[in-house]
Amino acid sequence: MKFKKVLSMFLAASMCAGALSGCGGSAKDSAETTAQQSASGETTASAESSAESKPAGTLKEGGDLKIAIPQFQKTFFMPQSTSTGDWFAAQPVLEQLGRQLEDGSYEPWLAEKFETDADNLTFTITLRDGVKVSDGSDCNAEVVAWNIQQYVDNGKGSEVCNPKSIEVVDDKTVKITFDEWSNIWDSAIGSVFIASKKAYDDNGEEWCKTHAVGTGPFILDEYVTDNKVTYHKNPDYRIAGEPHIDKLEIDMMSDVNTMMSAMLNKEVGVALKFESDSIIKQLQNAGFTAIGRKTANVADIKHIIWNSKSDKHPMGDLKVRQAIMHAIPWDDVAGALSGGIGEATPLFAAPDSWAYKEGTEFYEYNIDLAKSMLAEAGYPDGFDTKIYCKSQDNDTATAFQAILSSVNVNAEVVTMDASALAEMQKDDDIDGFIANRGASKMDFTANYIRLYSTEGIKNHGIMLDPPEFEDPLFAARAAKTQDEKKEKLQEAAVALAHDYVMITPLAIIYYQSFADPALADTGIYDVSLEQWTPEAVHWTE
């Protein structure tokens, strides 16, 4: 029986469910601030206004907007968040110090200026004058320093580059000192969400998990767990004339068909992250506007994490891992997992990512070779194993189950909740694989460190982490030029997915999202999956 038929049989049940996960937003292409980089390492925000040009249609002030997302909010206390999916619903209220550009770099946003002194290992943040939190408190250096320290205190020090000290210099200046120079300070520190210290002091940490108070364009009214978040316009927002929307609602929906129906019935103005070709065509035919771009920053990669560290299970043998790689019909699998809108990749990176090394070849699809290599490794009759996954990744697990079956490896798919699976990933004795998906990046340095290195807050304990991977990865972080950074990052990417087969990408998913044609400047997915520009969105007339 040909593989396509086998694959279709395995995927039939899982694909019809269509559950989606992982969501975020993006900064819009026409950024509200223009970054200027000087030779001294200083980055400033030169303007704080909306995009100069508006799309067709006259801007309409006011109105309400509902957005459907395939993601449940885990927490609003961002120093404890383990998912970038939490960012989307936080951003209307909690602003980041910086915003990401299309090339992967960060410009100041809530901050006025970032300044790097590479010789003295310092990163200095200069804040804007007179910025207020919506509860009336000041957004000053003390508040910003406290927010950054919360990341450290909650075990996420690596996500802010493990600062040696965080110092309040004066009311609008924070100086952060590091033991080791890094070229990702701007992205790491720029990604920090700034919340009200007063609200935390008055109400406590538990309250902050379900509430948010910040400097953003909207004020949070209510969070209904696993249901919706409602907001109203911040009348005192620091950018004059924004936001344009009076009320905002984010509806959390796990079922893709429910989201589609809500869009078709005009119950929501925006619906995010469809990967079904049939649904995409229905929404296109109904006249809704596709939003977002096909870039590394707006993709997810469906993948398998191997127990490459094991000395007790077959996956610990590199020859076994390489054998199974020869059993993958790359384009067939990518097409099946993406509804025909994605593509295969030999690396855990999209083709336009800095981590993508041109010329990297796929493992040849050769079932006979795969079986021969398994026999050489001591498994002529295959073996039994398990594939663990969250419910939303069942399609990936099922596809890999079909791949394994083609070389006589019998795999049981075991579905678990996210917290149980997270704990299991720390166990280097796990019998099997993890089916997962993760956000792609233009600059993958921070993501690789966060997820796959021994320093990472979400490190997968079942991964081998050889020096051929970690040495160039950490060298990429320490690189003084962008060319050197890209070179080292590519070395790490090749070691991760190709040479040591610690992770196997099966499909790059370029999700499609849709908006009401009367809606403009949504900023969603223009730059990244993780940020958007809620202050600029507006209706037209």
Walkthrough of the structure:
With 541 residues, this protein is α+β, with helices and mostly antiparallel strands. It folds into 3 domains: 59-71 and 216-294 and 513-541, Periplasmic binding protein-like II (D-Maltodextrin-Binding Protein, domain 2), CATH 3.40.190; 94-214, 3-Layer(aba) Sandwich (D-Maltodextrin-Binding Protein, domain 2); 297-509, Dipeptide-binding Protein, domain 3, CATH 3.10.105.10. The strands form 6 sheets. It has a 7-stranded mixed β-sheet, covered by helices on one side. The protein has a 6-stranded antiparallel β-sheet with strand order 1-2-8-9-11-10. A hairpin with a 3-residue loop joins β13 (218-224) and β14 (228-233). α1 runs parallel beside α10 (330-338), α14 packs across α15 (467-478) and α15 (467-478) runs antiparallel to α16. It is globular and about 70 Å long.
How would you characterize the largest beta sheet? 7 strands, mixed
Q: What would you call the shape? A: globular
Q: What would CATH call the class of the largest domain?
A: Alpha Beta
- For the record, the count of structural domains works out to 3
Q: Ends: how far apart?
A: 57 Å
- CATH fold type of the largest domain: Dipeptide-binding Protein, domain 3
